[in-house]
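Exercise 3.2. Students should predict the tertiary structure of the chain below and write it as structure tokens, then compare their answer with the key that follows.

Predict this chain's 3D structure.
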Amino acid sequence: MTDTATTGTGTRHRHEAGPAVAILRGGTGEHVEDVVRVLVESGVRAIELTTNTPRWQEGMAWAVERYGRAAAIGVGTVLEPRQVDEAAALGATFAVSPHTDPAIGERAHERGLGWYPGAATPTEIVTAWRHGARAVKVFPAAQLGGPAFLKQVLAPLDFVDVVPTGGIGIDDAADYLSAGAVAVGLGSPLVGDALRDGDLDALRLRAERLVAALGR
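Answer key:
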């Protein structure tokens, strides 16, 4: 995959998923559709369904049909190119990996999906960007040092769009945007137990609080 942004003066890749990406992982598979519905209705406009979530294919097909015009629906925990093919056939618009695998990036590009590979160090972040990432998933963000780490890394790498993920809570999500992130990814701090017990009222409150905290 060709690089379209290696310096601050080059053409930027553009992240299109909004300031918050909700990561749906695990559970029983029974509540996927309800969780997606509550998140989108609460203003979260990017939904990532991971491949290790039961019924993720059915949930994605439903989400794309119901909310494909209102939200970006993508696949997460992509470990093989074939999973990109499967998600693309269901209507996904982006693919997220915990690591950087150029073969996955190439397949995402071929299928027209935005690619969000995981990276931790400055070297990994630049490598992912130069392989054509739409934005780089800085992971695990909190354990790497949080917003302070991100701010330091982006000082020389301000041409890279990043989506920090991992250990980010509702109350500190905005700090990552202030540090230079184009979006943040939240899993359990946002979704909670909703995928297991279907507690949608608590989910709605958390989602609304996150949207209000990000302010855009």
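Discussion points: The two ends are 32 Å apart (CA to CA). Confidence is low (pLDDT under 50) at residues 1-13.
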